[in-house]
Amino acid sequence: TMNMYLFVYDLMQFCGHSWIFTNMIIRFMTFGKESLADTFHSIGLVMRLCQLLSVLEILHILIGIDKSRLLPRFLQITERIIVLFVVINSQEEVQGKYIVCVLFFLWNLLDVVRYTYNMLARMGIYYLPLTWLNFSLCIPLYPLSVLAKGFAICVSLPYFESFGTYSIKLPFPFTFSIYFPYVLKMYLLVLFAGMCFIIRNLFSERTAHLGTGNIKNKRS
């Protein structure tokens, strides 16, 4: 029953990310560079739904139906949630930047491959090219996505400074305030520190799944 539930979950995510990925490609082929500035308004709703749904993956690990490591997956999901909902969604001026299109392209390319692999794995089907792609593609693309996240945060800083979004100044007698651009700058350090940890985990997963013994077993 749990395996069927996970299959349906992966199928829903695959459909969502495939729709986004296909929509982005068709729009670019049809409208060219003009489509890049309109990416968020065209696919932002589905993107937000897919990312909210991905929070369930943390629950899957916590209750033991998914054997993935908790901390790397938690970091990857929270990175996207923070950048998408806190940085991009809250600043309309950032939504039209080309970096949003680049970020969405990297996320969806990774997720289309990952959820395709997961769906087949739930049924005990392993194709070596797909397995290799799933555990190899993320190694160069994940650091690129982190760079894109960092760039999106840097682009958003002037708008957070101008509009004071999420900055809080408590009234008297409290002498405490939160200047949100400083919070984002500190988060940049966390983002790149977490990248080093996650990349090491990606390499260990690749070794575990693409080792000679595992390949032979999956072929048989």
From TrEMBL:
The keyword Lyase applies. It is an enzyme of class 4 (lyase). GO terms for cellular component: endoplasmic reticulum membrane. Its EC number is 4.2.1.134. It catalyses: a very-long-chain (3R)-3-hydroxyacyl-CoA = a very-long-chain (2E)-enoyl-CoA + H2O; (3R)-hydroxyhexadecanoyl-CoA = (2E)-hexadecenoyl-CoA + H2O. It is a multi-pass membrane protein. The chain crosses the membrane at residues 7-28, 40-63, 125-142, 179-199. It is found in: Endoplasmic reticulum membrane; Membrane. Its main location: endoplasmic reticulum. One of its GO terms (biological process) is very long-chain fatty acid biosynthetic process. Keywords: Endoplasmic reticulum, Fatty acid biosynthesis, Fatty acid metabolism, Lipid biosynthesis, Lipid metabolism, Lyase, Membrane, Transmembrane, Transmembrane helix. Pathway: Lipid metabolism; fatty acid biosynthesis. The keyword Repeat does not apply. It comes from the Eukaryota. GO terms for molecular function: very-long-chain (3R)-3-hydroxyacyl-CoA dehydratase activity. PANTHER family: VERY-LONG-CHAIN (3R)-3-HYDROXYACYL-COA DEHYDRATASE (PTHR11035), VERY-LONG-CHAIN (3R)-3-HYDROXYACYL-COA DEHYDRATASE 4 (PTHR11035:SF16). Catalyzes the third of the four reactions of the long-chain fatty acids elongation cycle. This endoplasmic reticulum-bound enzymatic process, allows the addition of two carbons to the chain of long- and very long-chain fatty acids/VLCFAs per cycle. This enzyme catalyzes the dehydration of the 3-hydroxyacyl-CoA intermediate into trans-2,3-enoyl-CoA, within each cycle of fatty acid elongation. Thereby, it participates to the production of VLCFAs of different chain lengths that are involved in multiple biological processes as precursors of membrane lipids and lipid mediators. Belongs to the very long-chain fatty acids dehydratase HACD family. This is Very-long-chain (3R)-3-hydroxyacyl-CoA dehydratase. It comes from Pomatorhinus ruficollis (streak-breasted scimitar babbler).
